[in-house]
Amino acid sequence: MNLSIDWNTTELLAIAGFALGLICSLFLFYVWIKYHRNRSHILLWSGGLTLFYIFLIPFIWANLGINVVLDKWTNFFIFTIPLIFLGWVLVYLGIIRVKLPLARKIPTIYYSLLFFWVLSSFFFYAIRFYSSGYQQLLSIIGIAVFFIAIHILILLALLDWIKKTSRRGSVRVKTGIIFIIVAIIISVARYLIILNDLISLPHVFWFLSVAGFDIVFILRSVVVILLAIGFVLAHKHRPSEEGA
């Protein structure tokens, strides 16, 4: 099965949003490596943003006139979705890290639990794509157990962070947190749209269906733009000064 896509203004705007996100992720990496290597949250956010772009590779190839044979990309999609989930986990870890004093470390057990959660997502989506039955149930489980759940954890961490910075935090940091909160809320809405539209489709056709959803690309573009702006605004937060 071959895929060919003609990009319209909507898709081009979506790509522009991802380009901004990529620039911001590179900027954060530059800031971390040159100035703040002791602030791991900057590196985590940079890595999280970068992983959000992987899903676009087949679309870019198709736009360049290269035939994309979906059957040959099965393994790519099996790894892509868990890697996007890993991106969200990195975002979450960055928020947890930035809330803590520099001298305090995240407990090892916490890293272990998140590691096994991410690892389980790789096994789960391998089953999801190769299984011939229970597609609807597996779609519900995947979105709920991985993506909706990590979004809830991120949102709770953000609310706690903004509460702790309500009196002593800078306006810049507070604004950044608000941008990230809005991005998370929109992202949850996006996943609910995906769930509603793709829940009953066979695994062979879900990618074609996503390719036709302008709103999915628009919302993902908006989410990445808001996250990028939020991270750039909030990355200078100094945990030790807040006593968080």
UniProtKB/TrEMBL annotation:
Q: Give the stretches traversing the membrane.
A: 12-33, 42-64, 76-96, 108-131, 137-159, 171-193, 205-234
Keywords in alphabetical order: Membrane, Transmembrane, Transmembrane helix
Instruction: Please verify whether the record's keywords include Transmembrane helix.
Output: yes
Q: What organism does the record attribute this protein to?
A: Candidatus Wildermuthbacteria bacterium RIFCSPHIGHO2_12_FULL_40_12
Source species, domain of life: Bacteria
Report what the protein is called. Histidine kinase N-terminal 7TM region domain-containing protein
| Claim: Electron transport is one of the keywords in the record | no
